[in-house]
Design a protein that fits this description.
Layout (H helix, E strand, L loop, with lengths): L28 E2 L2 E2 L3 E4 L5 E3 L4 E6 L11 E6 L6 E6 L1 E3 L7 E2 L4 E5 L12 E8 L2 E3 L10
Antiparallel strand pairs: 1-2, 3-11, 4-10, 5-6, 5-9, 6-7, 7-11, 8-10, 11-12
Bound molecules: zinc ion.
Length: about 140
Amino acid sequence: MFKYSMINPVDAGTVRRCDCWGEGHFGAPRGCRTHRGVDIVARADAPVFSPMHALVVRVAEPYDDDAVLSGVLLQGIDAHAGLEAKLFYVLPDLALMGQCVRAGTVIGCVQSLQARYPGITDHVHLEVRAQAVHIDPVPLIADLS
Ligand SMILES: [Zn+2]
């Protein structure tokens, strides 16, 4: 899986450390489940970049009961074929649905999480699957730690 490299979806984004709602690393506890992605600290309204060459498949909703918080599902193409990425707490650019983008293309903007999780560090949740298995994206992104 380390043949892949991805770019940071957030300018100067870093992994979310412990706050009142938990930690942002892959595998962090979430009640009886574990965190299947990584949380990248971001400022609300900042641009979000595609982490890979991808088909923008569709809007992906993080929560059934929340019509505001949104996200996007990407399917890797070219050097990223075999990868799938979900980014949450992103208001996606709807004009890109069904389109192919290069890594680094702006695909939306960061949403504030304060209404749902008061006091949390605003972030983009990035979840990556390689051949349908969830993997930690951090080793794939050179400037993310
Ligand atoms: Zn997360």
